[in-house]
Design brief:
The chain is of the alpha/beta class and 191 residues long. It has 7 helices and 9 strands. The strands form 4 sheets. The protein has a 3-stranded parallel beta sheet, with no helix packed on it. A two-stranded parallel sheet has the order 4-7. A hairpin with a 2-residue loop joins β5 and β6. The protein is globular.
Length: 191
C-alpha cells in the first residue's frame, strides 16, 4: 500500500506535529493515542518523484492512494495511465468530482481519457465514493465567515457555477456582504 500524494503527506506531518506539541485544538482521545495513531503504516510514503515513479514497477496487487485536483494533474495521472487500461484494476474516486475534470469523466463512464497528449482506454472498474468529500458545505462556510471581519468583496472561485451562485446569494442575504462569482478567466485586482 502506497501513499503518493505530497499534499496528503504534508497534512499528515501537520497533524503529527500538533500531537507532538500537544496542541489544545486536538480532541483529548487523539492526544492520548499519540503520534502513532496517525502513522501511515502499513503504507509506504512516496515523498519524492523517484519514489512515485518506482511505484509503477510494482508487480502484483497494490493499493495506491494518490490525488491531485480531481485528476487534472500531478502524480495520479501516471498511475491512471498505467492502470486504467487493465480490467483487473479498480479506480476509486473519493469525494466530489467537478464537471470538466477527468475524475468526473471517469464517474460518468468515459471510455477513454486524454492524458499526456494521448487517449487512454478506461477498462478498469471505476467506483464513486462522492460522500467522502472533505469540502465544507454552505452552512459550514457561512459559519466560518461569520467569525471574520467583513471584507470589501468576497470572491467565490471554487465549485460548480450553480452552487457558487447559491452561496453568493446566501452571503449577501445572511451576512450583508458583497459577494461575487467571477467569470471564467476574469482578472480581479485584490488590495
Amino acid at each position: 500500500m502506497y501513499v503518493d500524494s505530497p499534499m496528503a503527506l504534508a497534512a499528515l506531518d501537520v497533524y503529527r506535529d500538533a500531537i507532538m506539541t500537544r496542541s489544545p485544538e486536538l480532541r483529548p482521545e487523539i492526544l492520548a493515542q499519540g503520534a502513532g495513531s496517525l502513522s501511515p503504516d502499513p503504507f509506504l510514503a512516496a515523498r519524492t518523484v523517484q519514489e512515485s515513479i518506482d511505484i509503477n514497477s510494482t508487480q502484483g496487487p497494490a493499493i495506491i492512494v494518490s490525488s491531485a485536483g480531481m485528476a487534472t494533474g500531478g502524480r495520479v495521472l501516471h498511475h491512471l495511465k498505467r492502470l486504467l487500461p487493465d480490467p483487473r484494476n479498480a479506480v476509486v474516486i473519493v469525494g466530489f468530482a467537478a464537471a470538466g475534470t477527468r475524475a468526473r469523466d471517469l464517474v460518468d463512464g468515459a471510455a477513454t481519457l486524454k492524458m499526456f497528449g494521448e487517449y487512454v482506454p478506461v477498462r478498469a472498474e471505476v467506483a464513486d465514493l462522492a460522500h467522502f468529500s472533505a469540502h465544507a458545505d454552505a452552512d459550514q462556510i457561512l459559519g466560518w465567515l461569520r467569525g471574520a471581519e467583513p471584507p470589501h468583496t468576497t470572491y467565490l472561485v471554487h465549485g460548480e457555477e450553480s452552487s457558487a451562485d447559491a452561496l453568493r446569494n446566501r452571503i449577501d442575504a445572511e451576512l450583508g456582504w458583497t459577494a461575487v462569482v467571477p467569470r471564467s478567466g476574469e482578472g480581479v485586482l485584490v488590495r
